[in-house]
Amino acid sequence: MGGVSEGHRRLTETEFSALSVELDGAWRDPEIARQQRDLADTELANWFAGRDVPPFRAYLELLKRHCWTNSLQFCEDSGLLDVGCGSGYYAELLARSGWQGQYVGVDYSEAMIATANSRRKSCPIPFVFHEVADARKLRYKNRVFPIVVSGCIMLHASDAGGWRKALSESARVADRWLMLHRTPTVPGSEHRYWRKLAYGVPCLEQHFARSVLADAWKDLGFEERDRIVTSTGEDGLVWESIMLRRTGGGGS
Domain containing 136 — which CATH number? Predict the structure, then answer.
C-alpha cells in the first residue's frame, strides 16, 4: 500500500503540462479508490470516537457556521453538491453528524462512485445520489445548488489551467455558498507544480498562489467569508478550507 501523498518532485509549469496527458487518468485507478476507502473508514472511526480529524472538523464547522440546514429541496439536482466526492465518505460524515438535507456527490472516477454507491446504507439521510462526472463540465443548471463543496480536486487538475475550469463550473452551479475544501495555497503570485505518488500511483499536484486564487473567485462573483487552516507545510504552504458566498446572495 502506498502513502496517501508522498515522493513530491517539483516541476516547472512546462514539465507539468507535458506530463498532463500521460497522467490525466491517474485518479481513476481502482487501487486509489480501494485505499482511500480504507483510510476513510479509519478516519470516520477516529472522528466518531472523539479524535480530531482536521479536514472533517473544517468541513462540518464551516457548514454549521454559515449554511447548515435540513430543509433543502428534495430532488437530485438540489441540496448540497460535493464535487470530487471520492468514495462517498463525506456523505457518511454528514449523515452521522445529524444532517437531514439532500446530498449529491460527483467524481470522475467510476471506481470511486461504485464504492460510494456500495455504501449507501451507511447514509441514513433522505436523499443521497452519486454519479460519475468531470468537475470541469458539470451537467447541472446554473445556480441550482444552495451549497457546493469543491473537495480537494482543483489541485489534481491534469493541466495547468484545469483548476480554473473546475472552479468556474462549481461557481456556476452554486446559488449561495461555495466551499473550497482542503485547498493548498502558497504566498506570492506563482503556482507550484509537482509530480507525486498518491496511494502509490503517479499523479500530478499543484499548489495555488493565494492571490491568484482569490482573484479567480472574485471574478466569478464570490467573496471570502471564512476559512479554517487544517495544516501547514514548508515554504509557506497552507492547507485550508475556504467558505465563499455569492456576492449579493442570501445566507447568514
Answer: 3.40.50.150
